C-alpha cells in the first residue's frame, strides 16, 4: 500500500513539474513577443517606412504565432 501511494505522489510531482514548465515557457514566449513589439514601436517612431521596421514586424508576427501555438498545447 505504501509503495502505491509513493508512486501516485511521484506521478503527481512529475505532472506538476510539467505544468509549471509549460507555464514558464508560455511566459518566456510572451516576453519575447513584447520585446519584439517594443523594437517595432521604436523603429516606427524613427522611420515609418524603414526596411528594419518590416523585419521587426515579421519577427513580432512569428513570436505571436509561437505564443498562440504554446497556448493551444
Q: What features would you describe in this structure?
A:
By secondary structure, the protein is an all-alpha fold. The protein has one domain (21-72). The chain is 92% helix and 0% strand. The chain contains 2 helices and no strands. The protein has helices spanning 2-46, 51-72. Helix 1 (2-46) runs antiparallel to helix 2 (51-72). The mean pLDDT is 80.
Quickly list its features.
73 residues; 92% helix; single chain; mainly alpha; rod-shaped
Strand content: under 5%
| Helix content percent band | over 70%
Q: SSE string, helix = H, strand = E?
A: HH
Low-confidence runs (pLDDT<50, min 5 residues)? Answer: none
How would the blueprint of this fold be written?
Layout: H1 2-46, H2 51-72
Helix pairs in contact: 1-2
Summary, kept brief:
By secondary structure, this protein is mainly alpha-helical.
Amino acid at each position: 500500500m505504501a509503495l502505491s501511494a509513493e508512486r501516485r505522489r511521484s506521478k503527481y510531482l512529475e505532472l506538476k513539474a510539467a505544468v509549471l514548465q509549460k507555464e514558464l515557457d508560455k511566459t518566456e514566449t510572451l516576453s519575447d513577443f513584447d520585446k519584439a513589439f517594443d523594437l517595432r514601436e521604436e523603429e516606427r517612431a524613427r522611420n515609418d517606412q524603414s526596411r528594419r521596421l518590416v523585419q521587426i514586424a515579421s519577427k513580432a508576427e512569428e513570436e505571436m504565432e509561437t505564443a498562440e501555438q504554446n497556448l493551444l498545447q
